[in-house]
Amino acid sequence: MNEPLPLCDARTDLKPIEVLFLQQLPEPSHELVESPQCELQREHSGVHIALAQASGPDSWWLVWAPGNAQLTARGWNMDRRLHEMDDCPATQGESEDECLLPARHAGAHSFEMESSGPRVPSAFARKKMLRALRESLDDDERAELEEMESLLASPEGDPLPLITQNEALVVTTLLGQVALDDWLMEDLVLRVVERMDTRMQALGR
Question: 73 pLDDT exceeds 60?
Answer without folding.
Answer: no
